[in-house]
TrEMBL record:
Domain of life: Bacteria
A Pfam family of this chain: ECH_1
Database matches in CDD domains: crotonase-like
Protein name as annotated: Enoyl-CoA hydratase/isomerase family protein
Record organism: Streptomyces gibsoniae
Regions annotated as coiled coil: none
InterPro entries: ClpP/crotonase-like_dom_sf (IPR029045), Enoyl-CoA_hydra/iso (IPR001753)
SUPFAM superfamilies associated with the record: ClpP/crotonase
């Protein structure tokens, strides 16, 4: 990716060569920034492209619109699965910066909902800034699905009990921005609409430092938990294959629960 601005598919990217900061925006607000297969591929392409763009030294990741940062995989996306429980095909596994060998710092700026598959992105961001409208939840269990990769990533970003409660309570409960800040998932809390600006301010500071030291630090931080994460990920395909209801039954539960209420804590 070169400097300047670009729009392609479900992403919008703007880079400022004067500061060394790029803002990557999930740009599907009509779908609550849910990720379809084209957007998943484009995210991987963007992260890999940033490895070669020396004008970008820090990245802010956010979502378009006021309602959501990201709501995971688009429910209209159909991904055929191998018959073997050892070869689950998860198109979101490659959407994060670390999965694409990008060791430039990535700061997530969250407004509105961040749920389910959004945790693939939050889990591979270096820290999270959110405004007071942000809410975090994991709907998998209520739809007859195993929260595997998402729970592993969040268990490395939150106290275990909080990650477990979020995963097990499903759509019945959402973690408020304030609570997310209190437990350390969010590092800075802003007024509504202020998350991107705050994240950019942090990114500009980081981008002003020598990139070799910054990138080495990002790599060291990831290495601190990489082994445990890889071991847990190795269990995920079998757990998903054994625990997920058939897709048609998941769809029925999804339709039935869309009108259901939830509480925020």
């Amino acid at each position: 990716m070169g400097s300047g601005a670009g729009v392609s598919g479900g992403l919008r990217v703007a880079a400022d060569p004067a500061t060394g900061v790029a803002v990557v925006t999930l740009d599907r607000p009509d779908r609550l920034n849910a990720i379809d297969l084209a957007t998943a591929r484009e995210l991987g392409d963007r992260w890999r492209g940033l490895r070669f763009d020396d004008s970008v030294r820090a990245v802010v990741l956010t979502g378009a619109g006021e309602r959501a940062f990201c709501t995971g995989i688009d429910r209209d996306t159909r991904v055929p699965q191998p018959a073997s429980p050892y070869m689950v095909d998860d198109p979101l596994l490659g959407i994060g910066p670390k999965a694409n060998d990008l060791w430039k710092p990535v700061i997530a700026a969250v407004r509105g909902m961040a749920c389910g598959g959004a945790f693939y992105l939050l889990g591979e961001s270096d820290f999270v800034v959110a405004d007071t409208t942000a809410a975090f939840f994991d709907p998998h269990t209520g739809y007859g699905m195993v929260s595997a990769y998402e729970s592993v990533l969040m268990a490395h970003r939150m106290p275990y009990g909080e990650a477990a409660r979020m995963a097990l309570m499903g759509s019945a409960e959402r973690i408020s921005a304030r609570r997310a800040y209190e437990i350390g998932l969010v590092s800075e809390l802003t007024e509504p609409g202020g998350a991107v600006a705050a994240a950019v301010r942090c990114a500009e500071v980081i981008a002003s430092y020598p990139p070799e030291g910054v990138q080495g630090t990002v790599r060291a931080l990831w290495a601190a938990q990489e082994g445990a994460r890889a071991a847990a990920f190795a269990q995920a395909p079998q757990l998903i294959a054994l625990g997920n209801l058939p897709p048609e039954r998941q769809a029925e539960l999804f339709a039935a629960r869309r009108a259901g209420g939830h509480r925020v804590r």
